[in-house]
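Design a sequence for this backbone.
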């Protein structure tokens, strides 16, 4: 990852996975862990399980578009409606807005503008 950041800094042409280059451009430290090791990545495993239980294990989708739509609805409900214990009872969106009001320099845009409207 460091070599990607260095290449960007000197405008050098390089090849990198799109996600890696996006992380490097935004100064994000992308860390990897071994799969199926819950002691190192239990939050990711728990979230993946919750998504599977709410979607593919509960419903049959005739086409991928139905799955994509249901997944988008699940993510919206989770981000804007589910209170998370580790966030001290806030929804993920509320936690982001609270952080933004305390430290706006950490953000590129106002998260208040990301709230879905009544027609979404």
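Sequence:
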């Amino acid at each position: 990852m460091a070599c990607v950041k260095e290449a960007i800094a000197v405008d050098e042409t390089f090849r990198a996975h799109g996600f890696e280059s996006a992380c490097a451009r935004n100064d994000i430290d992308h860390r990897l862990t071994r799969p199926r090791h819950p002691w190192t990545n239990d939050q990711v495993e728990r979230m993946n399980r919750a998504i599977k239980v709410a979607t593919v294990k509960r419903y049959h989708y005739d086409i991928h578009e139905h799955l994509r739509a249901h997944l988008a609805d699940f993510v919206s409900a989770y981000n804007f409606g589910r209170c998370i214990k580790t966030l001290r009872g806030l929804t993920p969106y509320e936690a982001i807005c609270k952080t933004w009001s305390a430290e706006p320099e950490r953000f590129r845009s106002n998260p208040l503008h990301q709230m879905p409207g009544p027609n979404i």
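Residues 47-82 form one domain.
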